[in-house]
């Protein structure tokens, strides 16, 4: 197995006397890792610990093989961060803010200007880049923030709610850009509430629940064991049929729209389903397959009891 | 990808940006230009002195340097207020301190950059005209103005301007860190510059004593140039630098609390 680019070992961190992270253990290998969890689960605090901004009471964080807090400045130089709660450097235009961000990360003014324009071009920010940032729409602010995080060509990207406030075309464009960056070889940590974004971008998930790790691993592992469901609609579907199907080894339930939901269905079960429905005289007009969603998998994971010192 | 930037690079980057933003305001541009007018007045005084001596054979003995220093405090004071009071409050209001924290910028470097953005222009606006006046005085009066005296004046002026620039930076940037509104920062800054001396006056110590940076700087001009006495001068300098250090520490402490997610 490859070396994790972020490794967190037994991390305990309290803020204002309140424990926020309680024994976090995680080894992130994925090219893009989704950091998900409810509000207050500890996502922002974990990002703060990864960047060496917040000092843990106990535990160790290693990023790209560099240990915190000794290598905090090096890690911050190698990281591009798009923060949700923070805005854009005020008092100037978009390009001013991006150039300033680049210079703070160590670029000369000339180099920051060159790379800043390139980043803004990639994000489709046209002449608006010369307007004061105070006049920017939410979407434009998000693009500008993204350019600020990219200007110094960082090795890793930490994105906090990158698509919030974007219209659908803008969201798609930004997601494609992030995916492109991932495919170029950059490591990305995306903190998001929009699970569809996480599903689109990430190959690994870190799910936090009340300061503990609820899941850490590949998305495929999370979805494993959650077979597709089938939704059958047609005539003659009733509770008696559902009971007959269940008795025949095809777990079925009738919903309030008169449709049958078949869970955990394999090929043999499907054949039994067709046989039982034919015998009962029901007419199946439509049979839809529903793939398991990440949201369902996450909710199911959160419902599972914790194991192994906080990790489920 | 880049290496870790040096502290000097980070501080100067922050200071340059702050200065650039401030210079977008016409008011500040006018103030800074005004800062170079008193030397012209001082040169006129010296020329009149020279002409009177040549025409009437008497030397009126006008030395424009102390007067210049008194007048120069006005544009310098206004420039410091304009540069310093929005410096940190703007970042706090826009909630961008975290953006510094996620980059290789510590609260110390941030505070130093903001202080430098006030210190350097104030120092230049105060010191350069003094250099010009001393040079003009030396040039116009020739052998009558002893070069050693001019050098001593230059040294004293350098100390004075260093202290005044540090004090004004501290007394404007510090209050800016204490609030999220530029106008409140302006009022707070005016208050910290005037209230201590008002209190002293109430207790009848206002004539010989001063704590506020402007009045301390004025007293320093007197104790350095008009009636040179070293011990009070050093005391005044210490007060000015204490203002600068206090402003820096207050800013550093305040932003460190907000440079977190």
Question: Characteristics of this structure?
Answer:
heterodimer; A: 312 residues; 6-stranded mixed β-sheet; 4-stranded antiparallel β-sheet; 11 helices; 37% helix; B: 261 residues
Describe this structure in words.
The complex is a heterodimer of chains A (312) and B (261). Helices cover 37% and strands 27% of the residues of chain A. Chain A has eleven helices and 14 strands. Chain A has helices at 43-50, 72-78, 94-104, 109-122, 138-150, 168-184, 195-201, 219-223, 239-247, 267-280, 294-303, and strands at residues 6-15, 18-28, 32-37, 58-63, 66-67, 79-82, 156-160, 187-191, 204-209, 212-218, 229-235, 252-254, 260-262, 283-290. In chain A, helix 3 (94-104) packs across helix 4 and helix 3 packs parallel to helix 5. Chain A is elongated and about 80 Å long. Chain A starts with 5 loop residues before the first strand and ends in a 9-residue tail after the last helix. The relative contact order of chain A is 0.13. In chain B, 48% of the residues are buried. The mean pLDDT of chain B is 86. The chains are: A alpha/beta (312), B mainly alpha (261). The interface between A and B is medium-sized, with 37 and 31 residues.
- What is the N-to-C succession of helices and strands of chain A? EEEHEEHEHHHEHEHEEHEHEEHEH
**Tally of helical segments of chain B:** 11
Number of strands of chain A: 14
Strand order of the largest sheet of chain A: 6-7-8-3-9-10
**Hey, roughly how much beta strand do the residues of chain A contain?**
25-35%
Radius of gyration of chain B: 20 Å
Strand element count of chain B? 0
Spans of at least 5 consecutive residues with low confidence of chain B = none
Largest interface: A-B, 37 and 31 residues
Identify the quaternary structure here. heterodimer
């Amino acid at each position: 197995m490859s070396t994790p680019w972020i490794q967190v070992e037994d991390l305990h961190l309290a803020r204002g006397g309140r424990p926020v992270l309680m024994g976090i253990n995680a080894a992130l290998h994925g090219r893009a890792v989704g950091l998900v969890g409810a509000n207050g689960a500890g996502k922002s605090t974990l990002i703060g610990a990864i960047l060496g901004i917040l000092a843990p009471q106990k535990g160790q964080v290693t990023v790209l093989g560099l240990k915190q807090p000794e290598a905090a400045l090096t890690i911050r130089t190698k990281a591009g961060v798009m923060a949700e709660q923070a805005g854009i450097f005020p008092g100037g235009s978009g390009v001013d803010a991006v150039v300033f961000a680049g210079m703070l990360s160590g670029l000369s003014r000339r180099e920051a200007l060159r790379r800043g324009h390139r980043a803004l071009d990639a994000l489709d920010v046209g002449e608006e880049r010369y307007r004061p940032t105070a006049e920017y729409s939410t979407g434009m602010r998000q693009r500008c923030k993204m350019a600020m995080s990219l200007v110094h060509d960082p090795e890793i990207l930490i994105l906090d709610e990158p698509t919030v406030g974007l219209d659908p075309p803008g969201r798609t464009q930004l997601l494609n850009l992030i995916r492109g960056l991932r495919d170029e070889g950059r490591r990305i940590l995306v903190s998001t509430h929009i699970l569809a974004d996480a599903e689109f971008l990430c190959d690994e998930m870190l799910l936090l629940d009340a300061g503990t790790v609820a899941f850490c691993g590949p998305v495929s592992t999370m979805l494993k064991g959650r077979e597709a469901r089938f939704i059958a609609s047609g005539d003659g579907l009733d509770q008696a049929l559902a009971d007959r199907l269940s008795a025949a080894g095809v777990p079925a339930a009738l919903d309030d729209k008169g449709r049958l939901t078949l869970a955990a269905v394999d090929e043999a079960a499907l054949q039994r389903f067709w046989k039982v429905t034919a015998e009962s005289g029901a007419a199946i007009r439509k049979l839809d397959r529903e793939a398991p969603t990440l949201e369902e998998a996450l909710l199911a994971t959160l419902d599972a009891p914790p194991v192994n010192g906080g990790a489920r | 990808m880049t290496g870790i930037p040096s502290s000097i690079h980070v501080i100067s980057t922050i200071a340059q940006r702050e200065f650039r933003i401030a210079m977008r305001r016409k008011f500040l541009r006018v103030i800074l230009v005004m800062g170079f007018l008193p030397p012209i007045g001082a040169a006129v005084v010296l020329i009149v002195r020279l002409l009177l001596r040549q025409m009437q054979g008497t030397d009126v003995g006008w030395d424009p340097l102390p007067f210049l220093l008194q007048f120069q405090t006005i544009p310098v004071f206004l420039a410091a207020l304009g540069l310093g009071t929005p410096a940190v409050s703007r970042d706090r209001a826009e909630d961008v301190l975290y953006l510094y924290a996620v980059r290789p910028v510590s609260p110390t470097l941030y505070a130093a950059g903001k202080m430098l953005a006030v210190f350097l222009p104030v120092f230049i606006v105060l010191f350069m005209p003094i250099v010009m006046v001393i040079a003009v005085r030396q040039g116009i009066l020739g052998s009558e103005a002893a070069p050693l005296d001019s050098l001593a004046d230059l040294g004293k002026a350098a100390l004075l301007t260093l202290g005044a620039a540090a004090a004004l930076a501290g007394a404007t940037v510090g209050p800016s860190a204490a609030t999220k509104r530029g106008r409140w920062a302006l009022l707070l800054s005016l208050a910290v510059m005037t209230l201590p001396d008002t209190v002293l006056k109430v207790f009848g110590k206002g004539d010989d004593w001063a704590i506020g940076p402007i009045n301390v700087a004025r007293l320093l001009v007197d104790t350095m140039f008009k009636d040179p006495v070293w011990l009070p001068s050093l005391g005044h300098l210490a007060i000015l630098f204490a203002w600068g250090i206090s402003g820096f520490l207050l800013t550093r402490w305040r932003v460190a609390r907000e440079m977190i997610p």
